[in-house]
Design goal:
383 residues; alpha+beta; Dna Ligase, domain 1; D-amino Acid Aminotransferase, Chain A, domain 1; 6-stranded mixed sheet; 14 helices; 20 strands; 26% strand
Length: 383
């Protein structure tokens, strides 16, 4: 991690939308995040509704310095006003207005990652005839969206065009999209090549096809946290080589806090489906406390160092508990467990039909130094 990250993360503040009917309370949709962030960071509130009217109303803790906004999407113009009003009060949002616009709007980031994301064309016009001109030299299936959002839950009516050369169907889907987006249509209209993805079924409510997808939060050019986009209980199936590739993508990002949404293609490779400003991106399947703990991990060399774990297990044993610590290693699909007992500790692999391979050790130091199951050495592999 860069020195800049070490200096920034400990002093981060967060600012959330207040409840529309009570400016002293957080918006109920962000209540859990507000609670989690507040454990280690100062948190302020502001009225989104007042901001829409050009007014800044702050409550909660008195904050100064670098701050991350967590809340509803804003147009680039609204965000610029928000940024400047806060700056006048000594509060600096982590992403400048230019950075926000670059990753909030597809044309801003597309060229930087062309070749790693579906082929796309767009028109600033919202006129159906102008948009249809984009289709003239295109072939195959496409998705229609604006610079920020699609209507993916209206898949066949206002999102998916099976054959872009079928002018009647293309016109129908594009017209539906433009009409239904109405005043919420952001920027212009985008036609994005439909990719064959690894399917995991269909959405239970809308019926839209869903695939193996991941949401990655990038903080200061490094992976903050990654999890499944759709599947809450499924293991994150990203290999070590793929993490290295994601880190190379993260290093190219020209903003302090963004999201990258990845999907697995039918051929097994990963592709960038969307990028966005991290401040207005939902957590999807990520637990709020895990998300904000990620900033704490950034702010200290490693609060989950092997020494930290050993000390914690000892303390729990000393008060009569039998602590169990589940751990995973990046690039390894297995799950492992350390169990602390009064007179020894054990290490085991979980959930395998051929046995857990549980091995006992006299002390945590002996366990830490040993070459154990699956060629793991905790002292060597922990970081």
């Amino acid at each position: 991690m860069s020195k800049e990250n070490l200096e920034t993360a400990p002093n981060l503040n967060f600012i959330f939308c207040s409840h529309p009917l009570d400016k002293k309370k957080v918006d109920e949709d962000y209540f859990e995040e507000y609670q989690a962030a507040g454990l280690n960071h100062a948190c302020a509130l502001f009225s989104y509704e007042d901001l829409e009217r050009g007014k800044m109303s702050l409550s909660g803790e008195d904050i100064k310095g670098i701050t991350i906004y967590r809340g509803w999407m804003m147009s680039p113009h609204m965000y610029e006003n928000f940024y400047n009003m806060l700056l006048e009060r000594g509060i600096q949002l982590i992403n400048s207005p230019k950075e926000y616009a670059k990753y909030h709007l597809l044309p801003g980031w597309y060229k930087d990652f062309e070749g790693f994301t579906p082929f796309s064309v767009w028109s600033e016009s919202k006129n159906i005839d102008n948009v249809l001109k984009l289709t003239e030299n295109l072939e195959g299936a496409f998705i229609v969206k604006d610079y920020v959002k699609s209507r993916k839950h209206e898949w066949y009516d206002a999102c998916f065009i099976k054959d872009i050369k079928d002018k009647e169907d293309a016109t129908r889907v594009i017209e539906n999209f433009i009409t239904r987006q109405g005043e919420n249509l952001e920027g212009g209209v985008v036609l994005r090549k439909f990719e064959s993805l690894k399917s995991i079924g269909n959405h239970k409510d809308s019926g839209m096809p869903i695939s193996e997808e991941y949401r990655i939060f990038i903080f200061k050019g490094k992976i903050l946290i990654a999890d499944n986009y759709w599947n809450k209980d499924k293991e994150v199936n990203i290999s070590e080589d793929e993490y290295v590739w994601i880190e190379s993508i993260a290093s190219k990002v020209e903003s302090g806090f963004v999201t990258v949404d990845l999907a697995r293609k039918a051929d097994g490779s990963l592709i960038i489906m969307e990028m966005g400003d991290g401040q207005v991106s939902g957590l999807q399947q990520i637990e709020a406390y895990e998300f904000y703990r990620g900033f704490q991990n950034q702010s200290k060399e490693n609060i989950y160092s092997i020494d930290y774990v050993k000390n914690t297990l000892r303390e729990l044993v000393e008060i009569g508990m039998e602590p169990k610590l589940t751990i995973c290693f990046r690039g390894n699909k297995s799950e492992y467990m350390i169990i602390g007992y009064e007179d020894h500790v054990s290490f085991q692999r979980c959930g395998y039909y051929d046995g857990s391979g549980e091995i006992d050790y006299k002390t945590l130091e002996e366990l830490s130094e040993a070459e154990i199951i699956d060629d793991i050495c905790l002292k060597r592999d922990w970081e």
